[in-house]
Amino acid sequence: xxxxxxxxxxxxxxxxxxxxxxxxxxxxxxxxxxxxxxxxxxxxxxxxxxxxxxxxxxxxxxxxxxxxxxxxxxxxxxxxxxxxxxxxxxxxxxxxxxxxxxxxxxxxxxxxxxxx
Amino acid sequence: xxxxxxxxxxxxxxxxxxxxxxxxxxxxxxxxxxxxxxxxxxxxxxxxxxxxxxxxxxxxxxxxxxxxxxxxxxxxxxxxxxxxxxxxxxxxxxxxxxxxxxxxxxxxxxxxxxxx
Lengths: 116, 116
Prior knowledge:
Chain A is mainly β. Chain A is 0% helix and 53% strand. By secondary structure, chain B is mainly β.
């Protein structure tokens, strides 16, 4: 079975601080995909990144960066110099290549609050 | 513009009534999905469909039904058998998955269903 754990229910930081959102996953499959989505107050999920299990290279996109470590089954997300617009609920999700287009397994999300 | 539309944005239902949530996409995606989100929870998969006239149950299909008569449309019916239907419902779509590659899912703006 697949499982995604986001232990941080809510994080509150002051604008311009760096913040890291943790994601730990469980799967028995060797081929799988990890995702991060952002859910602003409007409700729509916005895709941020996809990573497959064979690509452990970290990625940076502007102020966002992701640290994928298979040894610890973690896929953490860091926002550098946070801004108020980063306030949202962030979801980590897992998809395994079981042969079908199954849906994603989501963590419960981390509510990020950036205070001005 | 290409995207996913869901209607209505807010829906109120009396107990014992069936209601249908609309989901339309013009992204030419083969796969479509329905998720349910409860407060403080991640998303849970209700149903998904990889091709027209075919769909599969997800983790919480009881009390729901779907149809996929057209590639662009994947309506979800919440039946009276669903004991606790009040939730936020999100529709998503993706390019059809293969064994070698899974693609990110794109989400609609959601429908908030309230049972009175």
